[in-house]
Every structure is written in C-alpha cells, then in structure tokens.
Amino acid sequence: MLTFIRKRSVASLVSLVGLIVLVFFLSRLTGDPTDLYLPIDATDEMRAQFRDIYGLDDPLIVQFGRYVGDLVQLDFGESIRKARPAIDVVLEAFVWTLQLALITMALVTVAAVVVGSLAAFRVGGFFDRVSGIVSLVAASAPDFWIAIVAIVVFAVGLGWLPTSGTGTVWHWILPIAVLFIRPFGLIVQVVRGSMISTLSSAYVKTARAKGVRTRSIIFVHALRNAMLPVITVIGDQAASLLNGAVVIETIFGFPGVGKLMIDSILQRDFTVVLASIIVTALAIFVMNLLIDLAYAALDPRIRN
Amino acid sequence: MFGKVMTWGALMLATSLTPVWAQDDKAVTIVLNEEVDVMEPCMATRSNIGRVILGNVNETLTELDVRGDQGLMPRLAESWEQMEDGSWRFNLRQGVTFSDGSTFDAQDVKHSFDRVFDPTITCESARYFGGMTVTATVVDDRTIDFVVDPVQPILPLLVSLITIVPAETPVEFVREPVGTGPYAVTEWSPGQQIVLTRRDDYWGEAPEVSQATYVVRTDPAVRAAMVEAGEADIAPTISQDDATNPATDFPYLNSETVYFRLDASQAPVSDLRVRQALNMAIDREAFIGTLVPQDALLATAIYPPTTQGWNADVPVPAYDPEGARALLEEARADGVAVDTPITIMARTANFPNVTEVMEAIQQMLQEAGFTVELQMVEVAEHEVYYSKPYPTDRGAYIIAAMHDNRMGDPSFSAYFKYHSEGRQSGIADPKVDDLITRASAATGEERNQLWSELQAYVHDELSADVLLFHMVGFARVAERIDWTPTIATNSQLQLSEIGFKQ
Fold first, then answer.
1. What pLDDT score was predicted for residue B468?
2. What domains are defined for chain B?
3. What is the dihedral of CA B219, B224, B230, B233, to 10 degrees?
4. Do A53 and B122 lie within an 8 Å CB cutoff?
5. Which of A10-19, A117-126, B89-98 comes out lowest in average pLDDT?
6. Does residue B192 sit at the A interface (CB-CB below 8 Å)?
7. What's the ipTM?
8. Domain A87-302, what fold?
9. DSSP at B205
10. Contact (CB<8Å) B218/A166
11. Nearest beta carbon to residue B229 from set A35, A93, A156
C-alpha cells in the first residue's frame, strides 16, 4: 500500500510541476497586470514604477526563475491586488470551499445512494419513474437560474432564509441546496444503472432464494459491488466542487476559491491564480488517493 | 453526559441561529458590487475602496460639494490661499484626533502627501498629479505650504483626492486604516464583511448612523433582493432591470459619459465632413428609454453637466441622415475615401445593453452611407486601441468608450482626451492645446470661460468625437432610510449623509 501511495505521489508531483509551468506562462500571455491595475489615465511614470516594483519588466524566464526559487521555500509571492501573501488569500478562501464541498458531497452521496438503489429495485415502478424524472431535471437544470429563483422564493417571498452571505447556519442552506441538485441527479442515475446490473447477478438471486430480507440484499450485498462505478462519479463531482462552485459562490456571496480564481484571472493577479491552482491540485490529489483507497476497501481484488 | 451534550448542542444551535441581520435601529448594512481588496487610504480614489473609507474613515483637506452648489468646501483645512509665488497655504483645523488617539497636525498632512508620491508604493491618488512635483513644507502645527511645479491653480481641488493618515503610517499598504473621520474600522473579514463604527471623539457633528456593515454581492439581482428582504439598507448599484419600485429605486447621473473616440489622423475620419456626418447619422433620442435608461442625458461634453465651466449652449448634433449622406458625397467628390470600411471597437459589458446599442448605431451609420463593421472586445484588447500609441495596422476604426469625470473640473478629462499629447486624444489642434494650457492655469470666472470655450470649439468646430450619453446608475434604498444617491455615489458614500425616516 505504501508503495502505491509513493508511486501516486511521484506521478502527481510531476503533473503539478507541469501545471505550474503551463499556468505560469499561459497566464502571462494574457497581458500585463499594469494596464488593469492602474487607471487608464495613469501617467507613464506610474506605469514604469509599478512594473519595476513587481518585476514585470524582467524577461519571462527570469520572472519564472524567481517564482520557482521562492516557491521551493514555500513563498507563493504577494498578491498584487490584495497586497498580502497570495497563499494566505487562497487558504482563507479554500477553507470555505472545502466545507461547502464536503457537506454537499456527504449529503448528495447518502441521498443519491438511497434513492438510486430503491429506484433500481423495482425497475419501471412508480418510485423509479418519479425518481427518474426528478433526477433528469436535476442533472440538467442551470444552477444560476435555480439559485436566483431560490432567493426570490425562500428569502424575498417567504422570508424563511437569508438571501446570501455567511454567518449563521441558515446562510448555508440555500447554497448547499442549490449545489446539491446537479450531482444528486447525476449520481442517482449512476447508482440506479449500476444497481440494476448488480441485482440481476447470480449471487443476488441466490440470496433471494435463501430468503434474505430485501433491505439486506440491496443495502448490504448488492450495494457494495454497485458502489465501484459510483465512487468514480462521486470523485469526479467532488473534484469539480473543490475547484470552486463559481456560480454559487458569486450569487450567494460565498468567499470561496472558485470566485477568487476567476477574479484573479480577470485582474491578472498571477500569484493568486498560481497559488489557487497549486492548493486545489493538492486537494484533488489527496481526494483521488482517498478514492483509490476506498476502491481497495470495497474490492479485495484491487487490494491484492 | 448525554444531557450535557444536548444542552451544549442546543445552546450552540441557538447562538448560531440568531440572525446576523438583526441589528440596532441606527445601524445600516450596505451591499456593494465589488470586492474591497485593500483598505489603503491612498487608494481611496478607486471607487470600491472610496465608497467604504472616503469621508467615513479618512478625510481630506477639502471636499467638493456634490449635493448643493457650494463648490469646494473646507474639511480638515479651515481655509487656504494662494501666495504670490503661486504656492498654496492651507490653515488646518484644530482639535482633530485620529481614531488611534493621536492629534492631527501639519506633520500628518506632509507625511500623507509624501507617502502618496513615494516611488516604493503605487498609490492611485498620484495619477491626478501627473507631470507635477509637489513639495509640502510644514510652517507650524496648523499651517502647511505646498509648492507645486508647475503652478497649480486647482490645487485646492486636487487635495480633495488625498486622504490624510497619521505621520506614523508606514510607507507600505496598510490593512487597518487610521483616519480622522467620523468612523473607525472595527472589523474586516475579507470576502465577508467590513464594519465601521461611529467614533465618540469625532471633531465634527456626530452622524446619525451608529454602525455600518458592508457586504459584497457581485450579482445585481441579489443586491436588489437583499434590500427588498430587509437584509441591507442601501445597494448603491443595482441593474436597470431590477429598478422597478419607485419607492425604493432611484436613478442618478453616475458621472460616466459614453462616446466614440475618433482618430483624426486616420482616413477617412481625418476629414471634418466625415466626422460631422458620423455625428449627424446617429439618432441619439431613439436610445433614451429603450436601450439606455430613461434618465440618461444626451451628451454635449465628455464630462457631466455638473462640471465647472459647463457650456449649456453647445447643442446636441441634430439627427439628419440625409445631411450626413450629403456631407459624405461632398467628401467623396473631393477624393476622400469615404467607402473605407470603419470598424466600431466596443468593450463587452462596458455598460448595460452595450452590444445592442452598438448594433443599432452600426445600422444607423450604414443607412447614412458608411461601411461599418462592429467588433466587441475584452477590456485588455480595448486598451490596445484606446490608448496611445494607437495601432496603425488594423484599418480604420472608431472606438466606443466610457469616460468618468466625477471630480467636477474639466481638467481631469480635457488633457487626456483632447490635448495633442493626451493619452487617449484623437486630435492635434494648436488652438485646443492652447485653450487647455490656459484654462488649466486660470482661476475663477476666467477658468470657467476658457473651459466653456474649449467645449464649444471641440464639438461645434472640430467635431472631435461622437458624444452619446451621460449615463445613469440605479440605487435601491430601504424605505426607513433617508438618503438619495448623487453623482458622487460612484466614488464615495458618506455615512454622515444618511438619515432615518422614523
């Protein structure tokens, strides 16, 4: 197992280095931050002074060398916009994103596994049809629209919940609910499909013949096998949440890493872009590792 | 044990369930559209920062009256005068303290100015002093002299842009601004909220608002919804589509002017008749109340009508497509290449409905006989066309842009937009250069007269650009609040101007 983790770590480190090089040079292709930071009628002296302070006059390769030199000492550089260390800005935002992603994915997983399994048990039945329609609508609904409608209905109309922001438990309900919908729809479909094929396998039939209770057949015997493809999809959805739920963060004023990344790209705050990418890449690497371990836990063939 | 856990759990839940929006009567919540990335006093001329700290936390020596008609008013300076050698002397207010308890004096003013011009930090306020050297000399605790090279007749106006910080402030960006204003920053959780609390030891009249909480929502519909739901009291900018309730939603001239910059060194726009035809071919009235808000004004200058030296006699070019066609024919007969395709370069999301406005203008120009294409570009590419040196290899183009002059004086626009050396100027005319130089150096009525003359000359004689609209913004204000937006709302929002109806 340790060898496995070591191998994965080395592979991930190589892709991380590739990512840093790519993002460093690609982001610089978008232009000079001076034009966006300073007002359009700024004087030429101000522009020259700004470039000088942030070393933007140096050749790209020199800037890259300086960046890497600092990075190995865990110095991620200073955010031009926020005049603070980029890593502080990113970690602050990442904590919000991580909480949002973890809570949402935990709820989604439980709900989708239960609904998907029950739908698969009686294919074509009433529950299956209803859940099929609901999950299809959920998987394809535009979240920015749902978010605005949810605010208009639950915050402005009914006054049950705050429109947006952070601060209390109530503030989390709308963003999580809206974020829940799409992965829920998708995962229900995957659980259902995977469960149908598992339920028709020989060992389930044997269990039925032996008179094992339905609930045990679904949630103990079949679910374990049916979960393998589901875990892949959960991992995929969780990775996209870790990258930040830009739309949800923007609408609900949630200070997460997705919105930070978009803002930093638009403002050419390169150090923050790079720090966000490094932090989220590391998080996704850890998550992938956990998923691999979950595979191994569920399937003894992989373990060996 | 179980009971204990339950009790603690219930207590924690109860605490976390107390709504944050429950606050005292005189506390207000303001929902802004842009993140406040730094709270640095020398960046207060940037609107997202200025709206929070300018006049609330940090004060300036003078301030422009945007509600009344008083022009420049004293704030931290009680009076000022120009000396015989052209330098300026400011007499400072006494009995003023900073929020950290220290006393305000001339040393603080000197340090604040030195800090803004220090080459090791990039302070935005410095941009208004381009080409000038400012030397501040402390005469005594309450008197300070400014020698400006070249001599600046509008220095008292310019100093309204420099916020005063204590002499101990380091020459680097600060995160906890200290000022002499009626409020002090008591909380800043980046991305979440900023809280300003009223000071008891403020030198001036105590404002009504006891505490202000600023939150940021980038989506305009959410900002409007927050005021409607009672979570916020003021949303300084909401979208026109959301401004549907006359009791709470107010339009205001937002100091932005939309126009086409023409490069008069480039054919066919170099011909006066072609420039006049461009102006005559656009039916400006047709946009008002349709694609452009009802309260927007047709522009006759690049700055709004509240600016000094405004010339009310400059007419809006009459819509005359036939006349435009005739002028083009005349130019063609003289050998001007009027059929050269002209590209309209416009910036995406520059203002609401920008694409539709540009498409309509494209069609109007085509109907008058122009060959016009439209290209919508991002801000960075727009800048390539907007500022000098202009690209010469991209064919003939006219560029749609929006210019903001909230300062009340044409000097903040005229040099950049019309002087032959101006960074976004499309003309090189000796008379214009001369008028700008003279007006910038003049004072009082003479100054107004010269600016007025420049406005008429540039538009009536030169048709230097195609002016379109003075734009409006919309604010939503809760019904309990007594406050209306002004032309300055784009750049500052003084809490002391807010009252309560009950």
1. 96
2. 58-161 (3.90.76.10), 183-248+478-500 (3.40.190.10), 254-472 (3.10.105.10)
3. 100
4. yes
5. A117-126
6. yes
7. 0.83
8. MetI-like fold (1.10.3720)
9. P
10. no
11. A156
